[in-house]
Fold:
Amino acid sequence: MNPYEIMLLLDAELAEERQAEILTRIRELVEQRGGAWQGDDAWGRRKLAYEIDKKPEAFYYLLHFDCDAETLAELTRVLKITDGVLRHMAVRRLPAAATMPAREPSSGPPREREREAPSASTPAPTPAEAVQAAE
Structure:
C-alpha cells in the first residue's frame, strides 16, 4: 500500500449534504478495497485562479489515505464521472523526512552571507584594526 493524497475541488453551489456524500463515498471506496483512510482537511470556499465551467469559486478538500494502485485508479474513475467535482489531482505522499531539506553541519564552513555581514555577537573592528587589515 502506498500513501496518497487528493486535492479535490467541489462546486461551490453544492449543498453541504452533497459534499458530505461525495467525501463519504470516497472514504467507503478506499476502505472497502482494503485501504486505510488517514483523514481529510476541508480548506473551505476559495476563489479559483481561473474559472472552471464558468464558476469562479470552489470548495477545496485535501484527502489523505493509503491504498494500492488499482484502488487509486477506480477512485479517479469515480471522481471523473461524479457531478459536482470540478477538478481532482492525486499524488503520492512522501514521508515527512524526505520532504525536509538536509541541514548543514554546524562545524562546517560559514555561509557566504554570514561572511559578508558580521553577526550581532561579533564586535565591529576598531579603526586601528581596520587600517592594519588594509595594509
Q: What stands out?
A: The mean pLDDT is 83. The chain is about 35% helix and 35% strand. The beta strands are 2-11, 36-52, 55-67, 85-92.
